[in-house]
Amino acid sequence: MRRLLGSVRARATLAATVVVAVALLAAGTAVLLSLRSNLIDQAGTQAERSARAVAADLAAGKPYDELSLDDDDRPVQVVAATGALVAATEDLERISGTGTDAVHPQASTGRVADDDDRAEEDREDKEGKGDEGDDDSLDPGEIGERTTVTGGSATLDGTTADYRFAAVSVDAPGKGLLTVNAGAPLAAEQSAVSTATTVLLIGFPLLLGVVAGVTWLVTRRALRPVEGIRREMAAITASEDLARRVPVPATHDEVARLARTTNETLAALQTSVERQRRFVADASHELRSPIASLRTQLEVGAAHPGLLDLDGAVEDTVRLQRLAADLLLLARLDAGERPGEARFDLAGLAVEEAGRRPGVTVRAPETVEVAGSRGQSGRLLANLLDNAQRHARSAVTLAVRREGAWAVAEVADDGDGVPEGDRERIFERFVRLDDARSRDDGGAGLGLAIARDVAVRHGGTLTVGDAPAGGALFVLRLPLARPGASAG
Question: Which terminus of the chain, N or C, has less C-beta within 10 A?
């Protein structure tokens, strides 16, 4: 059961069925209550009609034995003010709910007073009560306006049933104040409610079954592309083939967007893995040469101390140190290391870096503050200057200025420049152009890659174009520091 409910399809079907079941239960209960209330009200109206018909006969002066009490096979009682039953339906055997359980009329004891005396007493009672119009103070021949409706049961001719009783007061001439209790059967109400309940009990499960089945089929159709995506992802995981892609359904819904996002993620992951593999392979290749050279020199020095090339060993060691530092910085950048929000003067940093390199001309007439890592930004400028000095014939220029919301640093040389087709490729890791390989003094092809990565991490850009002197022009753009940034 737990495994079944672990399915989205099963949970969706169960949730839809439960929601519909609750809605149907509430609606069915409301229908039954409304039906029962309406039918009970109708029975009460019928009982009141019967009671008033008998009261009208009494108000007209009909004797008890001439009243129509047995025409509708409904229980009727006529009760005197003293509580004595003076008339009733002939076949009435038992009754409850009217306040009087008697079913056989008692012998008449005659009038208590003549009509004139009684009328005078009624008038005095009305005056004493302030003409409130109470049913207990009616004029002779008057029927009370108030109707009291109650529920009860009665047995007529051996048949017991539930009834709705209506009680009406009447002042019958020569008989005094009487109460007429008439009942209307609730059999129709009970039958209708029972039938409706049966229909609901049969129809609700069938309807819930239809809802569950339709939901199961609809969710199956809706989740079929998701299952296809899952199977393909499982196959990709098993085969470790990141070149595969999940199927994209021909729809414009969330599943299609999920499939497209999954493929984009797979593409990014494939690119990252391939880049990492190339990085490891290139790093191994670049490390192999200086390590092999250093080992050879040390072995020769161990066998023949006089032939030890200390300068070459130191050069190879420095090269290894620089390469290790570059690889470490690239690893930190790939790991998403944040550059920070410290403020520093890019123009002052440019002057410091240029001062360590002879032959570099600096133009930085004003303070240009940016935010980020001063160390990484210094490394960026150093790599650009080192690259320019390796390829320049005689002059390298570094200029820093403001340009709108950007800080711009330009490094130009008078060398051969970069062919237009290679201007993006030179920022890839371990990439060195053929002419650069012959003149390279130990670089591993990581300087420009590191420079662009640092620029991007700081929210900027690094591009290359043609310098006015004919060489390469590297343009760095970094956003100016916001006023709230802390000083570095």
Answer: N
